[in-house]
Specification:
Number of strands: 9
Order of helices and strands: EEHEHHEHEHEHHEHHHHEHEHHHHH
Number of domains: 2
Strand content: 5-15%
CATH architecture of the largest domain: 3-Layer(aba) Sandwich
CATH class of the largest domain: Alpha Beta
Shape: globular
Helix content: 40-55%
CATH superfamily of the largest domain: HUPs
Distance between the termini: 46 Å
Bound molecules: tryptophanyl-5'AMP
């Protein structure tokens, strides 16, 4: 059995990201690329410093073009199958940093059709979740003048034209090899990769000239770019879309990524303080079975989601992260204390996020793109 699985619809096991770079044929994000981004942004980002974004395709070409005056567009997305969890915010917060740094347009796809094809949800439910999720996207602080959010079902006239051209250049045998489709897969899902590829070329279509596209997303989405969009691009006369990939924020259980389908180990942006306290309180940790053993032997921060959350999102200060790791290993920090610190940080973050989310309700129309 494989040690791990990474596909757009399933992420499981203990992922070896270095191996994944080789398997997927991407490139590691080098220090010199990180420096180029940070220089343009005028500030560093903890996602870059801590290698949470770790891999890319053609980022160097996009940056070279930008240096010569060729603006690019950002593209990312969400499959609206439920409430947003804090793992989804990882690529979105980084996309916001990139938008600010490069002052570029962002196209944000909400694949309500995809989630109707793969989940036990009605089209009305996936549409409602799309609008719910859009509030979280807007709450990340994107520029309304430069950010365009669309639902596949509401922007279908434009998207279908592009998706058709992608589909025309993609055989079933390619799609099956990339996504593992079988005789039981419904036809909607078999066509769907062409729709997720379509926004890679949308800026070029809308502007009437070729615009390179850079996609920040976790590595689970890579098959769409590797197998479909980047194959179709030269055949259609468009630049191949570039990517920058992030690792997964783990769930609160033992191993595995945070996943919307496991409500006990996922923290949703809609969770209230009590829910957060409870979920964090019940989290798996790298600690010992009792206080005496913890004091004597220390904990294991490497396998601890509580530590990982500080590292991923909730502690800006690199020194403080290092300090927590040392305190954990030496047995000076108990899991109960660490969990309490985390719940406070998460609740403070979510309180602010919820305020921005409330405001987003009034702004949403400024962002929506429809035919
Ligand atoms: P979805 O809704 O599964 O995920 C939305 C975004 O969140 C990333 N992600 C995570 N990142 C860090 N930690 C996690 N635990 C975690 N779980 C998910 C995903 O990689 C994604 O970037 N089919 C897509 C929607 C889509 C899309 C796109 C995504 C359409 N076009 C372009 C990225 C780029 C989906 O269902 O994503």
């Amino acid at each position: 059995m494989a040690e791990y699985t990474v596909t757009p619809w399933e992420v499981s096991g203990k992922i070896d990201y270095e191996k994944l770079v080789k398997e997927f044929g991407t490139k590691p994000l080098t220090d010199s690329l990180v420096k180029r981004i940070e220089k343009q942004a005028g500030k560093s980002h903890l996602f870059l410093r801590r290698k949470i974004f770790f891999s890319h395709r053609d980022l160097d070409l996009v940056l070279d073009g930008f240096d010569k005056g060729q603006k690019f567009a950002l593209y990312t997305g969400r499959g609206p199958s439920g409430h947003t969890h804090i793992g989804h915010l990882v690529p979105w917060l980084f996309t916001k940093y990139l938008q600010d740094a490069f002052n570029v347009e962002l196209y944000f796809q909400l694949t309500d059709d995809e989630k109707f094809f793969v989940k036990d949800l009605t089209p009305e439910q996936t549409r409602d979740f799309a609008y719910e999720n859009a509030l979280d996207i807007i709450a990340c602080g994107f520029d309304p003048k430069k950010t365009h959010i669309f639902l596949d079902t509401e922007y279908a006239k434009t998207l279908y034209g592009i998706a058709s051209r992608v589909a025309r250049k993609t055989t079933f045998s390619t799609a099956r090899a990339v996504f593992g489709f079988s005789n039981e897969t419904n036809l909607g899902l078999i066509f769907f990769p062409a729709l997720q590829a379509a926004p890679c070329f949308l800026p070029s279509v809308l502007k009437g000239k070729n615009i390179p596209v850079l996609i920040p997303a976790a590595i689970d989405q890579d098959p769409y770019w590797r197998g479909i969009a980047r194959e179709a691009a030269p055949k259609l006369g468009y630049p191949k879309p570039a990517q920058i990939h992030n690792t997964f924020l783990p769930g609160l259980g033992e191993g595995g990524k945070m996943s919307a389908s496991d409500p006990r180990t996922a923290i949703y942006t809609t969770d209230d303080e009590k829910a957060v306290d409870k979920k964090v309180g019940n989290a798996f940790t790298g600690g010992q079975p009792n206080v005496a053993m913890q004091r004597e032997k220390g904990g294991n921060p490497d396998i601890c989601p509580v530590m990982h959350y500080f590292h991923f999102l909730f502690e800006e200060d690199d020194k403080k992260v290092e300090e927590q790791i040392q305190l954990c290993r030496s047995g000076k920090l108990l899991c109960g204390e660490h969990k309490k610190m985390l719940a406070e940080k998460v609740n403070a973050f979510l309180k602010k996020h919820r305020q921005k989310r409330e405001k987003a309700k009034k702004q949403i129309e400024k962002f929506m793109l429809r035919d």
